[in-house]
Amino acid sequence: MLTYWIENASISTITFTNADLRVNWGLITFDEEDCFLRKHKIFKRHVYFICAGIDLILNVGWALTIST
């Protein structure tokens, strides 16, 4: 049962982080020369990676919260 929970939590975290970064924020595009960030940026490059890391941590926390 623990393996099933870990698999589902991992899949949901990856799915929602991908949705946040690609669809909601528009950061990941595979047709540009810089595939991890969009062409027009307002902030410096490291700010986007910090926000993406925070989003990943919050998605893991969300998965842990709803699964208890």
Characterize the structure shown.
This protein has 68 residues and is mostly helical. It is 66% helix and 0% strand. The protein has helices spanning 2-24, 45-66. α1 runs antiparallel to α2. The chain is elongated, with a radius of gyration of 14 Å. The model has no long low-confidence stretch (mean pLDDT 80).
C-alpha geometry: elongated
State the share of residues found in helices, binned by percent.
55-70%
Percent of sequence in beta strands: under 5%
Q: End-to-end distance, in Å?
A: 13 Å
In this structure, how is the largest beta sheet organized? none
What's the helix-strand series?
HH
Number of helices: 2
Q: Name the average pLDDT.
A: 80
CA-atom Rg in angstroms: 14 Å
Low-confidence stretches: none
Number of strands: 0
Structural class: mainly alpha
Protein traits:
single chain; 68 residues; mainly alpha; 0% strand
Short description:
By secondary structure, the chain is mainly α.
Can you lay out the helices and strands and say which pair or pack?
Elements: H1 2-24, H2 45-66
Helix pairs in contact: 1-2
